[in-house]
Design brief:
mainly alpha, 203 residues, elongated, single chain
């Protein structure tokens, strides 16, 4: 069993001193929770594991820079989020619109409890799942699959106005679930969904 530490300060001081037992305690305590959080961002189990591993390795290598006046739990969650954003930026060109959402998400993570973003992601996913079937399908064809309104109209053999109406309805319903930050969370969800081969058009 890992050595237990009575508080945040004692743990950070032990890490800064190079105590390997403190590092083992840190990993044992937070690894699983951080992997769940990383997976909620990436929708990729391997990527989530890699993100968390990188965070722990970097934390240990830079342990001398750890400050005793911050909460280690919040530090780890924010580090996972920052690692995820860094990996995303490496994997694809970030266009100005995406940068806007990424910056907004960063602000959310910095200013809120570490569980807030994860909760909002789950909330929006549930709201999408609960959309009326036809509305959800057309919304996903547009936002997940990236089809134009004309392509959706031709594929579903409906009018463009019908497609626009369903998408407008979907946004209206979703805004009731999560308001001013919905575009940023939707960006994060749909960026992730495109990577997940098990995700269907109906969510």
């Amino acid at each position: 069993m890992s050595t237990k530490y009575s508080g945040n300060l004692e743990l950070i001081e032990a890490l800064k001193s190079g105590d390997s037992k403190a590092y083992t305690f840190l990993v044992d305590t937070y690894h699983h929770k951080l992997c769940i959080y990383a997976y909620s961002l990436s929708n990729d189990e391997k990527a989530a594991e890699d993100i968390v591993q990188n965070v722990f390795i970097r934390t240990w290598k830079k342990r001398n820079r750890l400050k005793t006046d911050f909460e280690i739990r919040s530090f780890l969650y924010k580090s996972v989020y920052n690692e995820f954003i860094d990996e995303y930026r490496k994997q694809k060109l970030v266009v100005p619109l995406e940068k806007k959402y990424i910056d907004a998400l960063t602000t959310m993570v910095e200013n809120e409890d570490e569980h807030a973003l994860e909760a909002k992601i789950k909330l929006v996913k549930r709201a999408i799942h609960n959309l009326p079937p036809k509305c959800r399908e057309i919304f996903m064809l547009s936002k997940h699959d990236g089809l134009t309104n004309l392509e959706i109209a031709e594929y579903k053999q409906v009018s463009i106005k019908s497609v626009e109406a369903h998408i407008t309805k979907a946004f209206s319903i979703l805004r009731q679930s999560i308001r001013e930050e919905m575009p940023q969370v939707l960006f994060l969800i749909f960026k992730s969904l495109k990577k997940d081969p098990h995700t269907s058009r109906s969510v």
